[in-house]
């Protein structure tokens, strides 16, 4: 949780820099992962959402405004999602937190799914 999704960065860099898009995307991803992990940067504001006070992304933050205008909505969303994940799961340390993930459905894996997966892995080990 809290890791910047690389796919939007690679897509934008492929369009803007067809010759050296891999290097440019790696630089951009590293820069924004460092920004997201920086506990001194707090681009959030408190708002009432469904009657509850919650921290939401401050769309007026200068870094985020520049990111959105220069690199587009998809890249902005990748950074915003990483920020929200870090704020939800590890707001004090702002470092990436490993979570078991169901990639097929794009969500956290349930405990039942994890156990079933482990059982299937053990079965394949016993057969070989």
UniProtKB/TrEMBL annotation:
Ranges where the Factor of DNA methylation 1-5/IDN2 domain occurs: 1-126
Q: Which GO terms describe its biological process?
A: gene silencing by siRNA-directed DNA methylation
Protein name per its UniProtKB record: Factor of DNA methylation 1-5/IDN2 domain-containing protein
Q: Which InterPro entries match?
A: FDM1-5/IDN2, FDM1-5/IDN2_XH
Q: Fetch the Pfam families from UniProt.
A: XH (PF03469)
From the record, give the transmembrane residue ranges: none
């Amino acid at each position: 949780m809290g890791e910047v999704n690389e796919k939007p960065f690679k897509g934008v860099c492929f369009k803007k820099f067809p010759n050296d898009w891999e290097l440019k995307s790696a630089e951009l991803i590293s820069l924004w992962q460092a920004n997201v992990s920086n506990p001194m940067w707090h681009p959030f504001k408190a708002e009432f959402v469904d009657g509850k006070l919650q921290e939401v992304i401050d769309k007026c933050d200068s870094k985020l405004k520049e990111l959105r205008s220069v690199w587009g909505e998809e890249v902005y969303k990748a950074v915003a999602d990483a920020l929200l994940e870090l704020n939800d799961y590890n707001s004090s340390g702002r470092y990436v937190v490993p979570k078991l993930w169901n990639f097929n459905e794009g969500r956290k894996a349930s405990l039942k799914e994890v156990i079933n997966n482990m059982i299937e892995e053990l079965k394949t080990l016993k057969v070989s």
